[in-house]
Design goal:
Strand order of the largest sheet: 25-26-27-29-30
Number of helices: 1
Shape: globular
Strand content: over 45%
Radius of gyration: 21 Å
CATH topology: Methylamine Dehydrogenase, Chain H
Distance between the termini: 61 Å
Length: 435
């Protein structure tokens, strides 16, 4: 399975309650139109932009594209009326910021720069190359995410095997290689520091039989162990990726649903918990006829859902799940919200193909729509395009990040132009009399 792409080689690769003497005020999102849309791309007019991650204090990271070059950026105070755009990384070099986290109250912003045709992992808040090596001993290094202990994870081409991808922890130079499940490739997408201050890493690793499987690994200085770390898939002989983890050790990702003898396998987003295993999150309840990004109505034949782009480039990141707790004080009830995108395949009705397979005749005919999964809402997986004002001019293609306040960032089209977006929940108050 292709897990990673770099310039010269192509290795297989995110309620409050107010009590008074008389009333209980319970803020809840409106189910009909729960979000307003903020155009983050307006700060870089005329340039395509993408937002990957939003912190709880409203800072957003991503990139914009200018004359074919990527420029890493931070939208500071993005949820206020006075946002500020800050360029990250060295001037004149391709750069992308994938995530922002905090260690001891100070930001840790990680991603990649591409100074000379080779991707290098970068910590932008310190202008620090995480593995400052030259092209002779490493081909690529990309930092995808960090946790509040300051641990940074990602992928690297190591001196001993520079053409393949290796899940790594950037804790030393060279990075610590987490290994794989029996053959060459692996990628680390996210890491946490859980409630017991134990660190974990999630990602995907190739197996000896061929497919790549999602993994959940305890520790940052020990090798992957297939017998304890392999999360498996939603079917047999399939691929899966674990892309996000929260403080409750809940893991989000995607998996193929069923192996196909021909055509392309349908994939579904999943939520994994140690007590419940891998839960299939399914797809939004689309009608048979759906508008694409150009406003054309298409007859939908198959739907896949993902929390990260499948089998494409490394130009995507984000924190796709939050650590929301809706339990009463002293009684935790973690109910994470998960964001991603649905890929809708359209065209003439396939004949002789199971619903879990996409035939070649429509495999290239698809468009995407951003989704939110929330077990506390009717429908659970929701097309975010149905949750914004219908006259906004927006088409939401991908949701990449969500914070603990339920604020969502991603990319979409505003009047036909590709811009980064920020969704802010509209909170209304229901009033219940208390005797």
């Amino acid at each position: 399975m292709s897990m990673h792409r770099n310039t010269k080689h192509a290795p297989v690769l995110a309620v409050g309650t107010i009590l008074s003497a008389f009333c209980l005020f319970a803020p809840v999102p409106s189910l009909a139109q729960p979000y307003t849309v903020v155009d983050l791309g307006a700060l870089v007019p005329g340039q395509p932009s993408v937002a990957f991650t939003i912190s709880d204090d409203g800072n957003v990271v991503g990139y914009y594209l200018s004359n074919g070059s990527f420029q890493a950026v931070e939208w500071q105070n993005a949820t206020t009326t006075t946002p500020k755009l800050v360029k990250l990384g060295p001037a004149g070099q391709n750069s992308i910021a994938f995530s922002i986290n905090y260690k001891a109250g100070k930001p840790v912003i990680v991603g990649e720069i591409n100074p000379s045709g080779f991707e290098e992992a970068e910590r932008f808040d310190k202008s620090l190359l995480l593995d400052p090596v030259d092209d002779s001993d490493s081909i690529f290094n990309i930092a995808y995410n960090s946790n509040d202990a300051g641990t940074i994870v990602g992928v690297s081409g190591l001196p001993s095997d520079p053409t393949n991808a290796h899940a790594v922890v950037f804790s030393s130079s060279p990075p610590f290689n987490l290994g794989n499940f029996g053959t060459d490739n692996s990628v680390a997408f996210d890491t946490n520091n859980d409630l017991s201050s134990i660190q974990h890493v999630v990602g995907t690793a190739a197996t000896a039989s061929g497919p790549s499987h999602a993994f959940f690994h305890t520790g940052i200085s020990t090798k992957l162990n297939k017998s304890t770390d392999d999360l498996g898939t939603l079917g047999t002989g399939l691929n899966s990726e674990a892309t996000c983890i929260n403080k409750w050790n809940q893991v989000a990702g995607w998996s193929n649903v069923k192996k196909c003898s021909s055509g392309k396998a349908v994939s579904h987003a999943f939520l994994w918990q140690a007590s419940k295993g891998m839960q299939d999150l399914g797809t939004p309840a689309f009608a048979s006829m759906v508008k694409d990004q150009h406003g054309h109505v298409q007859k939908v034949q198959r739907v896949s859902t993902f929390t990260r782009l499948q089998n494409t480039s490394d130009r995507e990141g984000g924190e796709c799940m939050n650590g929301r707790d809706i339990g009463a004080i002293g009684t935790p009830n973690p109910q994470p919200q998960i964001v991603g995108y649905a890929q809708l395949f359209y065209g003439p009705p396939p004949t002789g193909f199971p619903v879990t397979c996409v035939p070649a005749t429509i495999a290239s005919k698809s468009f995407t729509r951003a989704f939110l999964f929330d077990e506390t809402l009717p429908g659970q997986m929701i097309d975010l395009n149905t949750q914004i004002p219908p006259n906004s001019g927006w088409y939401l293609s991908y949701a990449w990040g969500i914070n603990n306040l339920g604020q969502i960032v991603g990319e979409g089209l505003i009047n036909g132009n590709k811009h980064a977006f920020l969704l802010l929940p509209i909170i209304t108050a229901t009033i219940t009399n208390v005797p």
